Fold:
Amino acid sequence: MKITRVETFSVIVPLHEGAWHSPQFNPEGYVYGGTWVRLHWPDFPIVLIRLHTDEGLIGLGEVPKGIPQHTVRQVAGFFEGRDLWSFNMQELPLETMWFANPAIYEGYEMALYDLMGKALDVPVSRLFGGAYRNRVAVSRCLGRMTPEDAAETARQAVAQGYRVLKMKATADDPVVERLEAIHAAVGDQLRVNIDPNQRFYQPFRLFELVEQMRAHGLQNVECFESPYNQKNLDWYVLARQKLSIPIALHLNVAADVFEAVKREACDWLNIGGPLVNTYKLASIAEAAGIPTWHGSGVGLGISEAAYAHICAACKAMTLTSDICGETLRVNDCITEPLRFAEGHVLVPQGPGLGVELDMEAVRQYGVASSE
Structure:
């Protein structure tokens, strides 16, 4: 089976109103050289890939947000004209180029696996040895919210069957007030994963927060993910020594996971990246006895289907994964949405990724097409 053509589409799909930050925390960004630089990721385009073949099958892929379409198309020549079964899926040819980009790699790898699954009439999870589970535990995700908005989101999450709420935060946010509001709204029905994206900056900020939580009798925190600079593993070792709440690192590189395991720097791991890469990271974690979950790019239906498959195939993926784009964006750009029930996403059982591209949605939210 020969790949005859690479087709790409660029889309920008907005979020549901109020689904991420409260208005008080928008827009996010920073000052550089006296100029405000706005970082509003919902405005970043997402490139979708279709690999056409001479046998009529089409493989679907999705590049994580923020990569320009012309950059994705620059490597199309590595795939056009090649036999599907000629690729070494452990190392695609563009990985060896000096301009290799993990996000672009992920999109093309995803499309190849979709094609292979369709050609063999098996789901992608089977291509990784088979599924340990047919549904994957997931969290409801939110950005930086006021306590009132966080409480309302918590009520919605419990009503939808979620058991874990992932919450973004910085060192200056009213984190204790949010946790109090969430507990007042839903009691012990929801645990909270606090993810500062390294914006607690120093260990003492984390320790101060935990002391405040104790003073207020708050026990609803599931874990702290990436509270400060992940390059300083000594700080993570220190946190594990001082705290009983699990500490998680968000890592996508095998050498980093290996080092974290060797240093005993985390209780849990948030991992991701290309599918083969994720599988390798999960294998390291499994050998070390560290539970994992899959991170999120808050993408669309194609990527989230791929994440569901790899979560199903990895034994260590026992924690709630951040497959949350379906709940945050107004459209997933697939013809049939992924199915969620009782805080889980059901792994698609059709061939390949088990989803199809919704071309009407692509036209509605499209920025540009390669055609």
Notes: The mean pLDDT is 94. Residues 3-121+359-369 form a domain with the Enolase-like; domain 1 fold (CATH 3.30.390.10). Residues 102-120 form the longest helix (19 residues).
